[in-house]
Amino acid sequence: MSRNKDPQSVLLLTVHALFMLSGALSGTFLNVYLWKSRQDYAMLGWFTIAQQIALGITFIAAGKWVKEYNKMNALRLGIGVSGLFYLCVLWAGNQAVEYIWPLGLLLGVSLGLFWLAFNVVYFEISEASNRDWFNGWLGLLGSVTGIIGPWAAGLIITMMHGERGYRFIFTVSMIIYAATVVLSFFLRKRPVQGGYDWLEGYRKLKESRMWRHAVGGLIFQGIREGVFSFLIFILVYVATDQEAKIGQFALITSLVSLVSYWVAGKWFKPHRRSVGMLVGAVLLLIVIVPLLWKVNYVTLLILGIGTSLFIPLFMLPAVSVSFDLMGANSDNVEKRVELVAVRELSLMTGRIAGLLIFIGVLAFRRDPSTITLLMLLLGASPVGAWMFMRKLFSWKQHAA
Fold first, then answer.
1. How many CB atoms lie within 10 A of CB 230?
2. How far is residue 228's CA from residue 111's CA, in Å, rounded to a whole number?
């Protein structure tokens, strides 16, 4: 049986899809829920920074556990802590904005545990020959959950008139997380290989030019992600004052993403990655330009559709080449847990850098034109990511 049809691969994709569905249901509206209590972009920025700090610390601290003990338990704990996070949000209610840092740290721990374990298992189950296929399916399933989750949640919140609707979808997310934990027990325990090397990341940066290029590219990739992860949906809510419009926005953009990831997964081959990534990075910047004229639902929808259409061109090569680098030789494969931690810490560094730029500028000016110009500045970071990672594409072709 080919590895891309291995039942364990399908099961891992299912666990990922359920985790993403729960996040799409509640995570899409979490920042809006906080925004309705306090209209403060900086507050949301600090909430996201708290998540990223906890994410980084968890990747470092949990790396030893994932490598030397049971990575599947780390995956399950990450899902369980996600459910605990929404339980805390339900408990805090409208006062959740008073607990931005502890809530952000708790969410970061849950995401750190899940994504560290998931990425390691993903690396073990996939290989260079089927990684674009696997990434395509991850994107497809992410798009499907992005279609169902926010659209349904937006309707529910609107029909249940606000607070009751939010509490309902947060409860549903908790139930889905619980079901995902149960399903994860059908994933086989992965073999343990060697001890955890705390200094592996430092050595790779010191000794390997390719890893320095990879880390640089990942940092630039993270700069855009940190701010755009919460800002777009907030802008849609500010422009429309309707949760249902956020659900509609997510429905349309995810439908586009569903098609674009399917096409990209079919089209992408290793020799096309460099050109595809550059074209995607440039187009991701261009679709922000309409906001210079006016920030309304139409221009935001242009941004959302354009991003969904072109982001597979950027993301598939960016993800594939960094994981290919991890599998370049037997030493890298043996150090896969440490190298996954290096990858995520690099992304975290970029996200925090982008968020600090965002918060720093808004400390002086908060008008809509400033926010748009900030989006253009931060939205150019994928081009910087390509400038670093293109070295990896040429290395890959040379090695082949």
1. 23
2. 18
> Tokens standing for 118?
């998931």
pLDDT of residue 2: 42
State the DSSP H helix or E strand holding residue 58, giving kind and residue range, or none if neither. Answer: helix 41-68
CA distance 129 to 146: 27
pLDDT tens digits along 3-34:
445 677 788 888 999 999 998 889 889 999 99
Q: Treating both helix axes as pointing N-terminal to C-terminal, what angle do 381-399 and 368-379 enclose, rounded to 10 degrees?
A: 10
- Per-residue confidence (pLDDT) for residue 110, from 0 to 100: 94
Instruction: Let me know the angle formed at the C-alpha of 56 by 42 and 24, rounded to the nearest 5 degrees.
Output: 65
Tokens (6 digits) for 380: 């150019």
Instruction: Report yes or no on 191 lying in a domain.
Output: no
Question: For residue 93, how many other CB atoms are within 10 A of its CB?
Answer: 12
Domain of 11, CATH number, reads 1.20.1250.20
What tokens does 93 get? 């209610």
Q: Which of 347, 355, 295 is nearest to 43 (CA)?
A: 355
Does the reported pTM lie above 0.70? yes
Q: Is 294 inside a domain boundary?
A: yes
Domain that holds residue 395: 7-185+196-399
Q: Is 29 strand, coil or helix?
A: helix
Q: Cα separations (Å) of 304 from 246, 256, 260, 341, 379?
A: 11, 9, 13, 30, 13
Segment of 188-202, 256-270, 289-303 carrying the highest mean pLDDT: 289-303
Q: Does a structural domain hold residue 190?
A: no
What backbone phi and psi angles, to 5 degrees, belong to 31? -70, -30
> What is the C-alpha to C-alpha distance for residues 258 and 264, in angstroms, rounded to an integer?
10
- Asked whether residue 1 is assigned to any structural domain, the reply reads no
Which residues, other chains included, contact 129 with Cβ-Cβ below 8 Å and sequence gap of 6+? none
CA 217 to chain centre: 16
Position 28, amino acid: T
Token code pair at residue 80: 């369980």
- pLDDT over threshold 70, residue 107: yes
End-to-end CA distance of the chain: 25
Q: How many domains does the chain have?
A: 1
Q: Taking residues 282-305, what's their average pLDDT?
A: 95
